[in-house]
Each structure stands twice: as structure tokens, then as C-alpha cells.
């Protein structure tokens, strides 16, 4: 149990050690700790924010998909309608064309018929003249009996 | 008295007690007869306490230098846990500026713990090594020297005076010293109130002296007592190993291991208690009565 000058030296060392720690050791450590605490807090906050924005993005995506689906249905409807219209239009055109072709053909037939009949009547007239001349035994002057022939031809044509 | 013998070398109880007495002899600058002698210093206590201070500061500084706010290493993590723990304790116990107090608490804990840890080294290592350089007395455990523990307690006492005066002013401190814990008589023209005031002030001052003295004494004594007793028990256990019989060696191994393991707790616990008391006393200096 010997107390001596060591006591005061130890007191001094104690106080000086505290000062050295305050100057050179404590500040960087506590700064690092506080900095890390801040970083962790920020990280947690941004994680939360990220989660929230992810949820928002999900919602937005769903919205877009829904809208796209609606639009797609609309487009399909429109296309269907348009195709029906096209089919209808084509049918109308085809029908009109057909009718036109038929009526043209009919006109042609009528024209051809009348032409054939004219031809035929002329030939019949010629045959009639030839037959009459043979019957009479002589040449019929076509010029002299032109009016008769003409009449005949008309009759045949009419008949 | 060049001893340093193991107990059994002289073969009787006298040798053993001499062995212990030798181990309790400080390497002093002179022979001390009085309880207090300011002309003498304990070189061993100073050397080992400063060595421990250097070791503590070296490791703490290393941690401080490498401190980053990024992912910490294991060592940095350990130091930071300690710093954070002490910072929390300081904040809870001292309501005031912690610029000096919290770092002081950190050093106190680390320094005292490192000094205490010397006790875990085999008791003959340092004294035997010292004999090689002709140093015949050596007590390597600074906290088993009253000069160290009372030195620290005295430092805490002076700091608590400093903070008391700094925060409450010299008048406030004097008022607290004379008017707490029993209060003060209200003065009037009645001379009895004057007498009462003086009597009460005397009692208050006495109580304050007892309080400051008592707590400083117990502060220093608690650490000293624990470490001194621990050291003594290590000496006794080392004495067991002196008899090189199977029983002696086995007992030495068994008791030495058990006590050393138990002592790890004491080393840290006493350092922690010392730090907590330091904070508590400095915290009291910050509170108003």
C-alpha cells in the first residue's frame, strides 16, 4: 500500500489519454458510424420508394394492357365491319356486272337474230325468184319485178 | 533480496510466502516507509500502464484511420460496437456536451481492460524476464497498484469538479457544496436563523466532503481490490505448481485454467464498471440539485 508520485502521473496520463482519444480517435469513428447510419436510413427509404414505384408501374402496366385490349377489340370489330362492307360491295359490283353482261349478250343475240333474219329473207327472196323463174321457164327481170320482190322480202321478214 | 524462486525450491512454507512477498514488491525509485511519499515512483506501474496506453491507442487509432462509412471489417465493426455502446451510455448518463467525456470513457474502458488483461499472463513471465536485465522486482499489473486506480479516480474527481464549476459557475458550485443535501435556512433578522444557517452549512460541507471522498475512494478501491485479489490468487495457484508432483501439476492446471477463465469476466467487468462509474460521477457533476 505505497502511495507516491505515481498517483499524480497516472492522473495526468488519464486526462491526457482522454484528450488524445477526443482529438484523434473518437471523431473519425463516430463520423463513420453516423455516416453509415445515414446511409442505411437512406437505403431503407429508397428501398421503400422503389417498392412503391414498382407497385405504381404495375398498376400503370395493367392500365395500359387493359386499354390495349379494348383498342384491339375495337380494331377487330372495325375490321370485321369493313370486311363485311367489302364483301357486300363486291357482291353488288359483281351482280351489276353480271346483269350488264347478260343484257349485252341479250342485245347481241337480238342483233344477231335480226341480222340473220335479214340475211335469210334476202336468201329466201333470191330462192323464191329463182324458183319462180324456173317455174315460169324464163328469166325474171329482177328490175321489172323489183317491187314485187321487195314486197315479198318484207313479208317474209315480217312472217 | 534476489529471490524469484518457486515455492518448493526452498521446500517449506516460508519460501512460498517469500515468493509471494517478492512478487508484491514494486520496482520503485526508492525504499518507501511512509504511506505517502511524493519523491518515489513505481517504475513498473508506469512502464506497464504506459505500454498498455500505447497498445490501446495504437489499435484504436488503427480503427479510427480505417473507419469508413462503407461495409466495415470485423475489427472495425468490433471497435464501432464499443464506441456506439459507450456513446449511448454517455448520452444516457451525462446530460451535457460529450466532446471530451465520451472519448474519455472509451479510453478508460479500453485502457483499464488492457491493463487488467496483463493479469491473465502467467505471473512469473515478466518478473523472470526482468531478471535477465537485472531487474529483481517487478509487478506488471498496473491496476493492482493503488497509485493507478486512485490516480484514475482522482482524475475523475478533478474532472467532476471542473465540470461542476464549468456548468454551474463557481458560485453555483459553492452553493451546492454548502446547501446540499440538507438545504439552507431562510435568513431573517432573527439571529437564530444565522446560527442555524452556519450549522447547516457545516453539516452540508461535511456531507459533501464525505460523499466526494467516499465515492472517489470506492471508485479506486473497487478496481484495485478486484485486481489485487485476482493477482494474489494467481500467485497461490502458481505456488501449487511449485510442487512438481502429479497432483501439484494437475491442480495447477485445473485451478489456473478455471481462475483464468473466470478472470476474463472480472477483467472486462471491472473495466466496464470503472467506466460506468466515471460516466455516472461526471453525469452527477452536470445535474443541478
Q: What can you tell me about this protein's structure?
A:
- The complex is a heterodimer of chains A (159) and B (289).
- Chain A has 159 residues and is mainly alpha-helical.
- Chain A has one domain.
- Chain A is built from 2 helices and 1 strand.
- Chain A has helices at residues 6-136, 146-158; one strand at residues 3-4.
- In chain B, helix 2 packs across helix 4 (101-117), helix 3 packs across helix 4 (101-117) and helix 4 runs antiparallel to helix 8.
- Chain B has one domain.
- Chain B starts with 12 loop residues before the first helix and ends with a helix.
- Chain B has 289 residues and is mainly α.
- Chain B has 8 helices and 1 strand.
- The A-B interface holds A 1-11, 13-15, 17-22, 24-33, 35-36, 38-39 and B 26, 28, 32, 35-42, 45-46, 49-50, 53, 56-57, 60-61, 63-65, 67-70, 72, 76, 79-80, 83-84, 87, 99-100, 102-104, 106-108, 111, 145-148, 150-152, 154-155, 158-159.
- Strand 1 of chain A pairs parallel with strand 1 (36-37) of chain B, so a sheet runs across the interface.
Amino acid at each position: 500500500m505505497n502511495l507516491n508520485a505515481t498517483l499524480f502521473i497516472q492522473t495526468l496520463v488519464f486526462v491526457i489519454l482522454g484528450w488524445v482519444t477526443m482529438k484523434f480517435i473518437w471523431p473519425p469513428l463516430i463520423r463513420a458510424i453516423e455516416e453509415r447510419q445515414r446511409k442505411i436510413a437512406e437505403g431503407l427509404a429508397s428501398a421503400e420508394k422503389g417498392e412503391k414505384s414498382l407497385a405504381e408501374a404495375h398498376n400503370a402496366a395493367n392500365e395500359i394492357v387493359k386499354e390495349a385490349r379494348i383498342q384491339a377489340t375495337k380494331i377487330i370489330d372495325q375490321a370485321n365491319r369493313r370486311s363485311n362492307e367489302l364483301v357486300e360491295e363486291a357482291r353488288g359490283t359483281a351482280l351489276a356486272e353480271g346483269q350488264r353482261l347478260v343484257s349485252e349478250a341479250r342485245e347481241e343475240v337480238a342483233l344477231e337474230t335480226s341480222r340473220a333474219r335479214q340475211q335469210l329473207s334476202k336468201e329466201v327472196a333470191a330462192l323464191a325468184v329463182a324458183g319462180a323463174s324456173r317455174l315460169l321457164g324464163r328469166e325474171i327481170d329482177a328490175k321489172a319485178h323489183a317491187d314485187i320482190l321487195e314486197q315479198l322480202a318484207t313479208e317474209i321478214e315480217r312472217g | 533480496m534476489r529471490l524469484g524462486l518457486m515455492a518448493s525450491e526452498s521446500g517449506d512454507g516460508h519460501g512460498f510466502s517469500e515468493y509471494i512477498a517478492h512478487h508484491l514488491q514494486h520496482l520503485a525509485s526508492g525504499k518507501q516507509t511512509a504511506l505517502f511519499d511524493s519523491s518515489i515512483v513505481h517504475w513498473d506501474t508506469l512502464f506497464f500502464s504506459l505500454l498498455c496506453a500505447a497498445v490501446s491507442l495504437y489499435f484504436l487509432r488503427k480503427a479510427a484511420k480505417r473507419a469508413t462509412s462503407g461495409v466495415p471489417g470485423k475489427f472495425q465493426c468490433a471497435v464501432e460496437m464499443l464506441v456506439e455502446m459507450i456513446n449511448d451510455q454517455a448520452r444516457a448518463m451525462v446530460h451535457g456536451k460529450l466532446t471530451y467525456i465520451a472519448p474519455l470513457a472509451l479510453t478508460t474502458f479500453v485502457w483499464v481492460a488492457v491493463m487488467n488483461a496483463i493479469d491473465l499472463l502467467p505471473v512469473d513471465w515478466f518478473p523472470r524476464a526482468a531478471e535477465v536485465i537485472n531487474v529483481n522486482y517487478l509487478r506488471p499489473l498496473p491496476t493492482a497498484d493503488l497509485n493507478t486506480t486512485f490516480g484514475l479516480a482522482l482524475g475523475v474527481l478533478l474532472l467532476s469538479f471542473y465540470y461542476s464549476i464549468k456548468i454551474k459557475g463557481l458560485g453555483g458550485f459553492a452553493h451546492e457544496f454548502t446547501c446540499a443535501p440538507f438545504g439552507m435556512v431562510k435568513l431573517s433578522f432573527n439571529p437564530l436563523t444565522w446560527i442555524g444557517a452556519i450549522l447547516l452549512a457545516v453539516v452540508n460541507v461535511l456531507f459533501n466532503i464525505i460523499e466526494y471522498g467516499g465515492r472517489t475512494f470506492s471508485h479506486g478501491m473497487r478496481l484495485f481490490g478486484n485486481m489485487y485479489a485476482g493477482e494474489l490468487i494467481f500467485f497461490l495457484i502458481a505456488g501449487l505448481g511449485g510442487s512438481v508432483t502429479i497432483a501439484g501439476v494437475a491442480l495447477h492446471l485445473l485451478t489456473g485454467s478455471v481462475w483464468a477463465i473466470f478472470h476474463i469476466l472480472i477483467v472486462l467487468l471491472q473495466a466496464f464498471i470503472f467506466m460506468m462509474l466515471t460516466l455516472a460521477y461526471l453525469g452527477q457533476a452536470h445535474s443541478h440539485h
